[in-house]
Amino acid sequence: MKADPGAAGTPPPGGGPPAAIRVTDAHLHVQPWRLFRKEALERMAAERRDLDTIRAVMEDPDAFLRFLDEQGIERAVLVNYVSPDVIGFTDEVNAFVGDFCRGREDRLVAMGGVHPRFTTDPAGDLERIVERHGVRALKIHPPHQLFHPNAYRDGGDLPSLARLYEKAAALRIPILFHTGTSVFPGARNKYGDPMPLDDVAVDFPGLTIVMAHGGRPLWMDACFFLLRRHRNVFMDVSGIPPKALLRYFPRLAEVASQCLFGTDWPGPGVASIRRNLEEFRALPLPGEAMRALLQDTAARVYPGR
Ligand SMILES: [Zn+2]
Q1: How far does the centroid of ligand 1 lie from the alpha carbon of residue 9, in Å?
Q2: Is the CB of residue 302 less than 8 Å from the CB of residue 24?
Q3: Residues 6+ apart with CB under 8 A from 260
Q4: pTM of the model
Q5: CB within 8 A of 149, min separation 6: which ones?
Q6: How far does residue 191's CA lie from ligand 1's centre (Å)?
Q7: Do residues 86 and 113 lie in contact, with contact meaning Cβ atoms separated by under 8 Å?
Q8: How would residue 6 be classed by pLDDT, with cut points 50, 70 and 90?
Q9: 7 CA to middle of ligand 1, Å?
């Protein structure tokens, strides 16, 4: 059998067997499917054969934890965001994900959303969802929310974004930004360019910024540059087929301390979390980089409770 660098880990001081890695899937979607618009649901359900399983675990947190056990995942970040016009998700997602994770905060991280085009006070909204629903991270999806992340600058039409970022930094709430394309009907792909995040990283050095999907498939170089330039910028590799990952990011090991493993399950093209993880563990990455991606970076960006 081939040596598995992912399972090996770093030997503890004084010898003995290396500590097992507690794998975090830093990007998967547990969402209230009843809110999907018809076109978005069709896109989501296309070509899937496990819809019954998906629906069952999305209504039952304990069933979901058993499902994670089967997949080899210890902790998971449950990505939710608000996009009533393009996808169908309203502010209700915050209560949904808060209820889902309550009492299971050691394994599940509730990620919620606010939509600066559908509220006059996104910073106040963030405070509310953190207090009321226990939300611990925020998702912004520019191609589904139709703005650039730096639309608070240069005469942009969303000055309230600056107050949202200030509030997130003050509350130590990391923000995950979708970067890269989206094929959902109604998505606008010009907003998938990660480079506007350069402004956000410069203007809000205390904010933790995570780029989802590494800009796939058009903007990998920009993401790599932003990782190297900014200490407060991180990246999850979800949605990138593990077998293609090192082709897209040949120098991934150099930035591993800013990178997180994630699957984007059950997004289009992600059939199985377990298979995704197996393929990821088979990559020729140094043990330390493997450990950072699977466990350590997530423990810093999305600490457990
Ligand atoms: Zn996603």
Answers
A1: 28
A2: yes
A3: 24, 26, 27, 210, 234, 235, 236, 237, 293, 297, 298, 301
A4: 0.93
A5: 140, 142, 161, 177, 196, 197, 199, 200
A6: 15
A7: no
A8: very low
A9: 26
The encoded tokens of residue 164 equal: 């949202």
Centroid of ligand 1 to alpha carbon of 29 (angstroms): 6
Q: From the CA of 79, how far away is ligand 1's center (Å)?
A: 7
97 and 78 in contact (C-beta within 8 Å)? yes
Counting beta carbons within 10 angstroms of the beta carbon of residue 120, is it exposed (0 to 12), middle (13 to 18) or buried (19 or more)? exposed
Determine the distance separating the centroid of ligand 1 and the alpha carbon of 11, expressed in angstroms. 34
Mean pLDDT confidence for 40-46: 85
**How far is residue 76's CA from residue 25's CA, in Å, rounded to a whole number?**
5
Distance 177 CA to ligand 1 centre (A): 10
pLDDT tens for residues 163-215? Answer: 999 999 999 999 999 999 998 899 999 999 999 999 999 999 999 999 999 99
Single-letter code of the amino acid located at 301 = V
Q: What angle do CA 45, 50, 55 make, to 5 degrees?
A: 75
